[in-house]
Amino acid sequence: GDAWTPTEPTQPAPEEPTEPAPTEPAPTDPAPEEPTEPTPEKPVEEPEQPTGTTDLLEGTNGRDVINGTGKADEIQGHAGNDRIKGGGGNDKIGGGEGNDRLNGGSGNDLMYGSAGADKLNGKKGGDKMVGGGGDDIVQGRNGDDVVDGADGNDRVDGGRGNDVMTGGAGSDVFAFRLSTGTDLITDFEDGTDLIDLSRWKLSADELDGVLDAGLSEKNGDAVLDFAALGTTGTVTLKGVDIDQIDAADFVL
User: Fold this and answer.
1) 192: phi > 0 → left, psi -120 to 50 → alpha, else beta; which?
2) Which residue in 200, 192, 195 sits closest to 236, CA to CA?
3) In whole numbers, what is the pLDDT of the chain averaged over residues?
4) Helix extents (H) in 19-113
5) Closest Cα to residue 162, out of 143, 188, 136?
6) Backbone phi, then psi, for 26, in 5-degree steps?
7) Tell me: the pLDDT tens digits for 15-54?
8) By the 8 A CB rule, do 215 and 237 touch?
9) CB–CB of 85/64 below 8 Å?
10) Interatomic CA distance for residues 43 and 49, integer angstroms
11) 3-state DSSP call for residue 53?
């Protein structure tokens, strides 16, 4: 019986400490995984929300006043005489039926007046505006704008910047400011449309001097240069012969 007593306690002694040893580092594995997962997600999600957001704002068939946000808004006034301001961001604004007033605000905006006698004001940015049906006033203001009166007898004013102006159907008036840029009129019709320089306060003799010194032909287009008045700026009348242009085409 003495030979059995030393062998029995020596076998379980090394087995017991080796079993819990590998189990102790196991809880350390999830510790670094928990803080690393949420930290990269939060800063990625936050800047994506304002840049990809477009708010849809709709009026009723009555007389609405709608103010946009600082983001890119889509605003539909529907019927009625509406007043709509886009605010900041690159907005899409539709007036709908009625005599609407649309103000794009800052940003590069798209505006359509639709039916009615509408007034569109692009304000800042490079805007694209279409008056639609009716006798509209379409003003680009600051920036390089694309301004289209469409149907009706419209007043089209590109404002400052290098603008592309289209009167559309009807007898249209193209208005220019003293600080005009390099502007293009795409569809001037002699005897139907007019060029308004009333802000310049020119006399008839001064206008004759501008036409004599600054009217030229370039690539089949009539080009009017205002350098004779001591200011920069040109107006190109696409497809118009210079022999068709005289003082009767202007409003002083």
Assistant:
1) alpha
2) 195
3) 84
4) 20-23, 30-36, 38-51
5) 143
6) -60, -45
7) 544 454 444 544 455 454 554 444 444 333 333 333 345 7
8) no
9) no
10) 11
11) coil
The alpha carbon of residue 187 and the mean position of all alpha carbons in its chain are separated, in whole angstroms, by: 24
Quick one: tokens of 229? 């008045």
Band (pLDDT 50/70/90 cuts) for residue 124 is: confident
Q: What are the extents of the domains in the chain?
A: 55-251
pLDDT digits (tens, 9 = 90+) for 194-219: 999 999 999 999 999 999 999 999 99
| Residue bearing tokens 């999600």 | 45
Per-residue tokens: 108: 């590069």
DSSP secondary structure string for all residues of 85-142: E--SS--EEE--SSS-EEE--SS--EEE--SSS-EEE--SS--EEE--SSS-EEE--S
Look-up of token digits 């983001």: 71
Q: What is the pTM of this model?
A: 0.77
One CATH from 1.20.1560.10, 3.90.230.10, 3.10.20.740, 2.150.10.10 for 55-251:
2.150.10.10
Count of C-beta atoms within a 10 Å radius of residue 55: 14
- Integer Cα distance of 220 and 229 in angstroms: 25
